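Sequence in, structure out. Go.
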Amino acid sequence: MLIKEAHAIAGSIGYPSKMPGTSYGISAKACITGSKLNLVEGSTCHKCYALNGNYIYPSVEKAHAQRIAGIVHDLWVDAMVVLLKAAHKPRKVGLQLPPYHRWHDSGDVQSEEHLGKICEVARQTPELAHWLPTREAGILANFIKNGGQVPANLTIRVSATMVDGNATKAWPVTSTVHKRKEAQGHDCPAIHRLSGPDKGKCADCRACWSREVTNVSYLQH
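Output:
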């Protein structure tokens, strides 16, 4: 498959300045659980960042629409593999992208089938570490119950629903958001980087991509 063909099916890959490697997102308006939590004050989805700012630019909304439409395409997995391999293709020293990919800087898993496709993309790109944050614990539980398997290079991190709430016990790798309470587990350092070239960035931290870090806690901002 040509890159042009892959792009027509799956849409564009993101290159976030905050974190290493690549990303891929869909509209937060398509979130199943998140759309409900957005209406709940004190939830981790209330006043969602991905429903404001740069995310409402027409060009971004158009890109999100193309990506979500492509999920059901029979060749979506093939297209994503082509795009990721092209983005992370070995280049000259100093220009190589870090081998990390984040799913859903906005949006979330849509179905068991969607989750299965993400797992297959990860399986076909073993050279990359994949991170999938999600609030769709029910979809994940049904996926596992029905025989779905998560490849070793994909870290699925189930997010807590309430700010200062406890991490779910339904999945071993989680994330929380803290405001008044102390961070649970690993305190995300990005928000604490207040100046310099690494301001607000992951820098050398890769905790979110690691299953060995059982919980990452993000300071609400």
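Check: Residues 3-219 form one domain. The chain has six helices and seven strands.
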